[in-house]
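Structure ticket #2291
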Amino acid sequence: MKKLYLDDLRPLPDNSYILVRSYDEAINYVKENGIPNFISFDHDLGVDENDNLLPSGYDFAKWLVEMDMENLCTFPDDFSFYVHSANPVGKANIETYLNNYLKFKG
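Resolution: structure written out below.
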């Protein structure tokens, strides 16, 4: 089982995960390896050198859905996720977006 952990600061919870620190790293991982069976999302992924917000875990979730809809990368049948973000609004956005899409996809 492939497990991805998206977080700009936190350490891996255990060695069963592959760590990606940014939206771009997460996208590159999926482009090279496909969508993993499990993803643990952080929402806020830091700021750039000018204090502009970097793309978030929510942006990554939207990208995953777009790739699945276009059949470029598809969610595994046993796909699941968790949102470990401390941002309650960001956490709810990711959960709602992915749950609604996965329910729609059936």
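Closing remark: The longest strand covers residues 3-6.
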